[in-house]
Amino acid sequence: MEINPKENLYKEVLQTMSECVIIHEKSGIMIALNENVEKVLGIKSDLLTESNVSQLEYVKEDGSPLPYSELPGIITLEKGIPFYNYVVGVIDPETGTKWLSINSKPLNMRKDGEQAALITISDITERKKMEQTIIHAKEEAEKANLAKSDFLSKMSHELRTPLNGILGFAQLLEIDDSLNDEQRDFVQEILGGGRHLLSLINDILDLSRIDTGQLKVSIQEVDLQTIITECINIVQPLAKKKRIHIHNQLDQSQTMSVLADPIRLKQILLNLLDNAIKYNQEDGKVMIFSYLKRNDAVIHIADTGIGLSVEEYQKVFVPFYRIKGTQEEGTGIGLSLVKQLVQLMGGRISVTSQKGIGSDFYFSLPLPYDLKAAMHWEEEMIGLPTKNGKSEHYCLLYIEDNQSNLNLVKNILKSQSSYTLLTAQSGKEGLELARTKKVDLILLDLNLPDIHGFEVFKLLKTNENTRDIAVIAVSANALPQDIQQTLGKGFDNYVTKPVNVKEFLTTIYETLTSTINQNIPEHKILSTGPNGEEAISAKTLQLSLKDLKKLREKNYTAAIAMHYTRNNWARAQIEGLKTTFNKMGIRVITVTDAELNWEKQVADIQKILAKKPDIIVSLPIDPLSTAGAFQTAAQSGVKLVFMDNIPYGLKAGKDYVSVVSADNYGNGVYAADIMAEKLGFKGKIGVIYYDANFFVTKQRLTAFEKTIRESYPDIQIIARSGFTSPNDGKEITDAMLSQHLDLKGIFVVWDLAAEGAMASARAAGKHDLVITTMDLGTNAAVEIAKDGLIKGSGSQMPYHQGVAEAILAGYALLGKPAPAYVAVPALKVTKENLLEAWKLVYNQDPSELNRYINHLK
Ligand code: ADP
Predict the structure, then answer these.
(1) Smallest CA separation from ligand 1 atom 21, residue
(2) What are the pLDDT digits (tens) for 560-609?
(3) Considering only CA atoms, which residue is closest to atom 14 of ligand 1?
(4) What torsion do the CA atoms of 7, 13, 18, 23 make, to the nearest 10 degrees?
(5) Residues 794, 776: contact at Cβ < 8 Å?
(6) Residue 758, helix vs strand vs coil
(7) Which ligand 1 atom lies nearest to the CA of residue 322?
(8) H or E element that contains 804
(9) CA separation (Å) from 438 to 510, 685, 753?
(10) Helix (H) or strand (E) holding 58
(11) Cα–Cα 20 to 30 A to 353, which of 178, 250, 496, 551?
(12) CB 572 within 8 A of CB 802
C-alpha cells in the first residue's frame, strides 16, 4: 500500500492520535498507520501480522470468549459491516484483561479495488476499571440498603403485635365504667402514645416495603374531587382546633379523574393536609387547587404557615429529616413516604416555600388515557364528552314509554356532564319537543304506544326544523335483518335493549361526533412515520357535531384513488372512508383502482383532477413515479390524504394533510410474541419477507426480528427469504423447509403469502409448524380459528384507517391543524379473540365468519 506524499500531513496527524490505526487487507496484510500499536496491542508496529494478532485471546464485554473470526475488523473485511465503539477484551496472563474500544469501517479508497478495513483501537482499560469500581460500590450500597429495609420491616412487624395488645386492652379499659377520672386520663395517655407509635411503625413499614419493592399500588381511575372532600372531612376537626380554614378551590362542577391507587392517594393527601395544618399559624389558611398540565393533573396543597427556607425545603423529602427546633410532634418520615408514593404512581412532587409566609406542596398524577390522548396534540380539541369538562354540550331526547327504561337511561346519563336529557313518553310528545327545543340527538324507542317509531322517524325527517337531528333506534329486537332494515331507513345507529352501558355511551358519542371506534384497545404506537415522525394515535382524532354541521353546509366532494381494490383490506378502507364522508355530508364522486400499475394511477389522478374534487385520498403505488401527478394535485389546492406511503418531495402541512397507517411496528412485535408463546420460547425459525423497498412491510420485519433477538434469546432465526409476489409463498417455503429440516416456525410478512407457506408445510407433512403473519384475510382467520398452522397475527384495522383519513380531510377543510403522521393501534389476533378482532378489523358483524368456521368443523 502506497501513501501519497501529499498525505504527509495525514501521517503527522495519525502520529499524534492516542488510538492505534490499522489497515487490514483482505489478503491478510496488516499495516500500522501509527506507532500506537505497541502501546495498545503490545505488538511492535513492524511486527504486526495477521498471525500475531490472531494468536491473542479475546473476550466479549460479558467475559465470554470471542473467536478471532468475530472481531469487528474481520467482519468488516468479510461482510462490509462497519462497527462503532465495539468493546473487546484481550487477555494477558500477566497483567490481566486489557479492554479495547474498536471502530472499523470498510475502506473504499483503494485504487486497486482490493477490499480492506480501516480499524482504530483505543485502550479503555482505565475507564473500564473505574466503571467496575462504581458498579461494585453501587451494588454494595444497594445490598446494605436492602438489609436495612429488611431489618426495619422485620422490626416493625415484631413491634406491631405487642402494640395491638396494648391498644386493644387500653380500649377495653376506656369503656370500663369503674375507672375514676385520673385513671381515665392515664388510659387516654396510653391510647394516644400507642396510636402515635402505630402510625410511626406503619409508615416505616411502608417505606421499607417501597425500598424492597414489596409495596404494590393498584392504579385505577379515581375521581379527585371525591377523595379530596373525604380527606378534608377527616382533618377538619384538627383544623378547627387551630382555627385554620380549609379552602377547597377545586371546581365543584367539574369531574377530574386521575390514575392512582385510591388508598395511597388518600395517604398522600392526608399527610400533606396534616402538615399544612400542623405547621400553620392560628387563624391560618390551607388552599387546595388543581389544574391540568400536559398529560398530568397537578394538585396543590398550599398553606399560610411558618414556611421553610430554601435550604430546608431542599431536604424535607429525606427520610427522618426534621427542621431543627420544630416544636410539633413528628417523625420526619411523612414527606419521604409521600414522595415515594407519588413516584410509584407515576407522578412527581415539589415544594416552594418562604419563611414566615407559607408553603406550597404540589404533586402531579397521570390522567386517564382518553383524556390524555385528547389533550395530547391539540389544545382546542374537544375531549370525550364523558370525561372532559371542556367538551361541547349536547341535548339528547329519549322518546320511550317504558318508565324503567327511561329511569335507566336517566341514571346512565346523570354522570355525563356533557349531556342534557329531555324525555317524552309518546311519539306525539316527542315530536313536539324535537320541534321546539334545540335537540342534537334523539334516542327513539321503536314500539311507542301512539305512533310507530318508523313513522316518528319519517315525520322528523320531513320537517325543516328536525331534519338534521341524529336519530338512534332503541329496540329490544336484536335480529340482524331487523337491524339492517332499520339502518336502511336512514337511522344513524341502532341500540338493542337491555343496553350495555359502555357501548350505549360510545354509540351516542360516535353518532354525535366522528371518531374511530373508541373501544379499540389502546397501546403505545411503536411505528414512526416515513420521515421518522412521531405517530399520533388515530383514537385522538375527532370532529365535533359543530364541525360536522359546518362541513355539511359546504357540499364538499372527495375522490379515492386506490392502488388496488380487490382485497379485504382495500374494501374495508373504502368502506370506512365512505361511511365517514357520508356523515360529513361529503360526496364520494369516484373510486379508482390502479391495479398496482403506477402509470394507471397517474392517469387516474389526472382524470380525478378534471372533476375538481375538494379531497383526494390515495395510496401512492410508487413514491417516485407518482410524485409528479400528486404534486400537480397539491398545486391545484386539493386536500391530499395518504394511506401508508408519501410521494417524494411532498411536504406535510403544505402539499398534503397527513399520512395514515397502521402501527406496523407494533404488529410485527405481536407476530413475534405469538411465535414465541406458541413455540414455548425456543427453537429455530425462518422469516419470509417482502423483497421490495416498501416502508410498511419493512417496519413489520424489523420489529419481528428485533423482538425475537432481544426478547427471546432461545429462538434463532436461521433462514430468511424474500418474495416479490405474495403468490410465491408456497415455492419459497418449499425451498426453506427442504433446506432446514429442524425449522419449528416461520413468520410471513403478508397473510396471502402465509397461505402459501401453510400449503407448503402441509404438503411436507409438517403439521406442527408454527406460522405467524400480518393482517386477517378470511383464509388466515379460518386457519387461526381451527388452531391450524397459522397461530396468530398482528393485524391492521383498515376500516378505522379509512375513518381516520376522512376525519383528517375534514380537519383540512375546516382549517384545523392536522398531525403529519397518524397510526391506528396494533392488534394482536389469536384464536382466543378472533371474532372480536374480526369486528374491529372490518367493522363487520363476525357471525357470518363464525357460521363458516362452525360449518367447517
Ligand atoms: P414530620 O411532620 O413528621 O416531622 P414530615 O416528613 O411530614 O415529617 O416533614 C418533615 C419536616 O418538614 C417537618 O418536620 C417540618 O419541619 C417540615 N414541613 C413539612 N410540611 C411543612 C409545611 N407545610 N410547612 C412548613 N414546614 C413543613
Answers:
(1) 275
(2) 999 989 888 899 999 999 999 988 999 999 999 999 899 999 999 999 99
(3) 322
(4) -10
(5) no
(6) helix
(7) 14
(8) helix 798-814
(9) 19, 63, 55
(10) strand 57-59
(11) 250
(12) yes
Ligand 1 contacts CB of residue 297 (under 6 A): no
Contact between residue 82 and residue 120 where contact means Cβ atoms under 8 Å apart: no
What's 459-497 look like in SS3?
A: HHHHCCCCCCCEEEEEECCCCHHHHHHHHHCCCCEEEEC
Q: Is the CB of 633 under 6 A from ligand 1?
A: no
At 325 the pLDDT is 80
Rounded to the nearest 10 degrees, the angle between the axes of helix 262-278 and helix 224-241 is 30
CA neighbor of 542 nearest in space, from 593, 504, 580: 580
Contact 167, 125 (CB under 8 A): no
Predicted confidence (pLDDT) per residue in 199-256, tens digit: 888 888 888 877 777 777 777 888 899 999 999 998 998 999 999 999 998 876 666 7
Rounded to the nearest angstrom, the distance between the alpha carbon of 354 and the centre of ligand 1 is: 14
Which residue has the CA at smallest separation from atom 7 of ligand 1? 334
Q: How far does residue 238's CA lie from ligand 1's centre (Å)?
A: 16
340 lines ligand 1 (CB under 6 A): no
Task: Select from 439, 500, 443 the least CA-distant residue to 469.
Answer: 439
**Rounded Cα distance, 104 and 30, in Å:** 14
330 Cβ inside 6 Å of ligand 1: yes
Closest atom, ligand 1, to C-alpha of 336: 6
Q: Tell me: cis bond preceding 498? Omega within 30 of 0 counts.
A: yes
d(CA 804, CA 798): 10
Are the C-beta atoms of residues 534 and 528 closer than 8 Å to each other?
Answer: yes
Q: How far is it, in rounded angstroms, from Cα 730 to Cα 755?
A: 8
From the CA of 248, how far away is ligand 1's center (Å)?
21
CA-closest residue to ligand 1 atom 11: 322
Q: Is the CB of 382 under 6 A from ligand 1?
A: no
Number of residues that this document lists for the chain: 857
Residue type, 562: M
573 burial via Cβ count (<10 Å: 0-12, 13-18, 19+):
buried
- 277: Cβ below 6 Å to ligand 1? no
Q: At what angle do helices 798-814 and 568-583 cross, to 10 degrees?
A: 40
Read out DSSP for 537-578? EGGG--B-HHHHHHHHHHT-EEEEEES--SSHHHHHHHHHHH
For 68-116, the DSSP string reads GGGSHHHHHHHH---EEEEEEEEEETTTEEEEEEEEEEEE---TT---E
* CB of 601 closer than 6 angstroms to any ligand 1 atom: no
CA 276 to ligand 1: nearest atom? 23
pTM reported for the whole predicted model = 0.52
Give the CA distances from residue 701 to residues 689, 722, 735, in Å, rounded to whole numbers and listed in that order.
Answer: 7, 11, 20
